[in-house]
Structures are given as C-alpha cells and as structure tokens.
Write a structure and sequence with these properties.
The structure holds two protein chains of two kinds. Chain A is mainly β. Helix content of chain A is 12%, strand content 41%. Chain A has a single domain (3-131), classed as OB fold (Dihydrolipoamide Acetyltransferase, E2P) (Beta Barrel). The N and C termini of chain A lie far apart (46 Å). Chain B folds into two domains: 17-181 and 326-350, Thiolase/Chalcone synthase (Peroxisomal Thiolase, Chain A, domain 1); 183-321, Peroxisomal Thiolase, Chain A, domain 1, CATH 3.40.47. The chains are: A mainly beta, B alpha/beta. The structure holds zinc ion (ZN). Zinc ion (ZN) is lined by residues 21, 23-24, 26, 35, 37-38, 40, 42 of chain A.
Chain lengths: 138, 358
C-alpha cells in the first residue's frame, strides 16, 4: 500500500501540474523545486497544456505487477510542448497509428488498482493521439 | 405558503440561470447489438439499437466525467476554481464509498473551495444534479456549478439490457443566465415511488420489472412532467425547435415524443441511443449536448429525463448568441461518436470485467 505517495502525487498525476522557474521561465515536470536550467529555486506551480509529441515508444507484453489486466500496452516518452520529457502510457491507440512525432494530448485515466480489488484506484495522466486529428487527419 | 397548483408548479430560482459551457464524452469502443444476439440467440433476437459505446480498460465514470468537465470549462472559459460545486450523477460510480466528485474536482482544479457530491437516482441522477445546481446558483450562493451525468452501465449477460447498456454522458457548467449560451427558462420534476428497476447492494447487475418498465414508469413520468411544464408555461410542442427524452432504447423516446405531439424531426438530433446505447444518467444530457452543437440563437429546447424508481425532470431552454463563439472551443458530441472502434463479444467481456482472472 502506497497511499501517502499516491496522495502526495495527485496534482501532478491528475492534471500534469509542474513548476515554472521564476528566473529563466523554464518549465519543470515532474516538479523538483530546483531549476535544471539555471540552478535557482523554482516552486511556482504551472499547469502544462497537455500537448506534446511521441519522442519514442515501446509496447509492453509482459506487464509488471499491477498492470497485467491492461497488457499489452504502449509506454512512450512524450516531449511536451513546453519542453520537458515525460514517460507515460499511451491510450486509445490500438497500436496502429502511433509513430515517433505523433502529436498527442493528455487525458486522465485509471492507471491501476493499488493491491487487489479492495485497494485504492490510482488515476493519472496518459496520452492519446489528439482527438481532432483522430477524426479528420488533416 | 401557497398551495402547489398547476399554475405555480415550476421551480423558479431567485435569479435566472443558464448553461455557461457543456461537454460530452463517449468512449471509442462499439459493441454491435448483433454481436450480443449472435452469442445468446443464434442471431435471432430483434435489435433494440444498432450498437453501444463501451468504456476502455482504463476508463470509468471518474475519468469520463473529467474529460466532459474539461470540455465544459473550455467552452465556458471559466476558471475551474470559480466553480463552487462538482456534482456527479451516476449509477456506476467506481467506488461504493468514496466520492467520484472529489477525484474529478481535484483533476480539473476545482479544489478546495467547492461542494462535491455524488448523486444517485438511476438515469436521472445527472439532471437531478443540474436542478440542484440551478438552485445553488439561482439562490446566489454560488456563481458557477458543475453538474455531470455519466455512466458505464452493466447488463447481465444475455439480459435485454446487455444489448443497450452503454457508456457516456455529459457535463454542464451552469452560471448566471445573462452570461450563458442557453438560458434554462423553466424546470419541473415529477416523482413517485415506482419499482421498475433496481440494483441491491453488492449486486453486480440490476433487476427490472419487465413490462412494468414501460407504461407506469417511463411513459407516465415523462408525459406527466413534460405536459405539466408545457401547461404551466402555456407552451405547446410546436413552440420548441428540439426535444430530447431519456433514451433507454430507440422506440421509447420515439413513442413518448409522438404521444406528447413532437415530430421525428424535433427529436432527431438528440436521439443518440441507436449509435451509443443507453448511457443512463448521461442519456438525456448527451442528447442535449448534440443539440447545442448545432442549435441557433433564439431556438428553444425541451429536455425530459427519466430515472427509474421513478421520476422525470423537465427543462425548457432557450439558446443565446453566445453559443456561436463557444461551441467550437471543445470537441463536439458527433466527434466522439465518429471515433469508433468496433469490438467483438470476447473483447467486450474482457473490457467489462466479465472474465475471471483469478
Ligand atoms: Zn531557471
């Protein structure tokens, strides 16, 4: 059981809330309070747009504990519009239309159950190909 | 207090209330009704709809409500922290105890200065939340409130409901009428204790009163509430450009519309059950988002929900000029319906947790 950790991470997980550096305007995700660009303190909360593109990806067939029920699934490195790279599951893909450079958007989905069916439901960000482009690929 | 009479039955807020923004959500998977018939009747059963929407493995009422709510906020251009309520109506909340609404309020950024609560009244839980939000804003306690109706309903394998029990719904950010994209002009609710459909604690699938679900439940409550609202407002079906009725299958809303004197054209845009199934607490509300996606300023809409147990909320709305600039700010109802991936019964059984893993 990791309830305190799930609780602490809920804002960044549910809504991609990171930080912005007040000194050089760099955007930080995940939040780490110190700017990787200029080394100064960066604690101002920042809501990421949720838009980005696939930087690289891999499909997981042998899922680790807690994720067996959703296998197979694709994990990707996403380059956010604001700069940072994040690791996240892709969803609503069915495998086929993903490639490096595919534009994606953040959605909040159920990640797993913490423990068995009696455990806490853990929600968080995943990325999917941008909805409007799913409909009319222009 | 004045006695309630047909003249003063309308629920009237102290200040007028309207819809600031709306958002639909439908998951992308579709189970054709013919697949259910193939498995259980050798393909012989008559089909109540074409196909139903099915939630993905990582979706539930909480996640679907989050996306619909984000769409509603985007259309409204109101900061989530200004919404003083997040109320989610559903019969398929992910937890038995622990609110869906706190997860949603946190995810959209509405916490901590907010009312949060989960509503339960079968298929009218969403409109019940909406009527409460009208009172909350109409009284002046709040300027904005979010009301959501969303479901991922379950039907027992081979039961008539398995053909139709779908997934989807809609979110509405309500606010002062003068800033709204549609003014909610009148509301009226008609409720009795009618045992047409229920699910006991710890039971996975609901029970229904077979033929009892029709006349004394669905038709009685919808016609009573709609007729009373039209009588009290001295309006008739031709005064409305569109109407949407709770849609558990294709026939019921068509028949109740005809009984009340509405045409096929008036209900056509909001009749989504043939292609997404019965979305329970979301059914009437997502019919309304589909209408708002195409309605013009000045046009009038009648919405009537139905929830088993039983009751109906009737609402009369008028679209304002603000619809024109707001409706393109978020994906439309038909956008979600169009991103369709057909699945077979085996995939459906997996997605709905009907396979025993241990
Ligand atoms: Zn910096």
């Amino acid at each position: 059981m990791e309830i305190p950790r799930h609780w602490r991470l809920r804002k960044q997980r549910y809504g991609l809330v990171g930080e912005v550096c007040p000194h050089c305007d760099a955007k930080l995700f995940p939040p780490r309070d110190v700017c990787p660009e200029c080394g100064q303190e960066a604690k101002t909360l920042y809501n990421f747009s949720g838009r980005g593109e696939v930087y690289s990806y891999t499909t997981v067939y042998e899922a680790p504990a807690g994720f067996e029920e959703v296998a197979p699934y694709t994990v990707a490195l996403i380059k956010l519009q604001e700069g940072p790279l994040v690791t996240a599951q892709l969803t609503d893909t069915n495998g086929e239309q993903v490639e490096i450079g595919t534009p994606v958007e953040m959605v909040t989905r159920r990640l797993r159950s913490d423990g068995d069916e009696r455990g806490l439901l853990v929600y968080g960000y995943k990325f999917r190909p941008i909805l409007q482009q799913l409909i009319s690929p222009t | 207090m004045e006695e309630i009479s047909p003249k003063n039955i309308l629920l009237k807020p102290a200040r007028p209330v309207g819809i600031m923004g709306y958002g639909a959500y439908v998951p992308r998977y579709r189970l054709p009704a013919s697949e259910v018939a193939r498995i259980w009747t050798d393909g012989q059963a008559g089909l109540p709809i074409k196909e139903k929407a099915v939630a993905g493995l990582d979706e539930d009422v909480a996640t679907m409500s989050i996306e619909a709510a984000r769409n509603a906020l985007q259309r409204a251009s109101v900061s989530p922290s200004e919404s003083r309520a997040v109320w989610v109506g559903s019969e398929s909340h992910p937890y038995a105890v622990k609110p869906t609404s706190t997860i949603d309020a946190e995810a959209i950024g509405a916490v901590p200065n907010v009312q949060a609560g989960d509503w339960q009244f079968a298929c009218k839980a969403g409109t019940e939340a909406m009527v409460a939000a009208i009172g909350f804003i109409g009284s002046g306690m709040a300027d904005y409130a979010l009301a959501i109706g969303m479901d991922t309903a379950q039907g027992r394998p081979s039961d008539a409901l398995e053909y139709t029990a779908g997934a989807g719904g809609a979110a509405y950010l309500l606010g002062p009428a003068e800033k709204s994209l549609a003014v909610i002009e009148h509301t009226y609710s008609f409720v009795t204790d009618t045992p047409d459909f229920w699910r006991r604690a710890y039971q996975k699938y609901p029970e229904h009163g077979q033929r009892f679900t029709g006349e004394p439940a669905y038709f009685k409550h919808i016609t009573e509430s709609a007729q009373a609202l039209m009588d009290a407002t001295q309006t008739k079906p031709t005064d409305y450009d569109y109407a949407v009725f709770h849609q558990p299958n294709t026939k019921f809303p068509q028949r109740v519309a005809a009984q009340l004197g509405f045409t096929k054209e008036q209900i056509a845009h909001g009749l989504l059950v043939p292609v997404i199934g019965n979305t329970y607490a979301g059914a009437a509300l997502i019919g309304l988002t589909a209408i708002l996606d195409i309605a013009n300023p000045g046009e009038r809409i009648l919405l009537v929900s139905f929830g088993s147990g039983a009751g109906s909320d009737a609402m009369a709305l008028q679209v304002t000029e603000a619809i024109q600039e707001r409706r393109d700010r978020a994906p439309k109802t038909q956008d979600y319906i169009a991103r369709r991936i057909e699945i077979d019964y085996a995939t459906y059984a997996r997605m709905r947790g009907k396979l025993v893993m241990k």
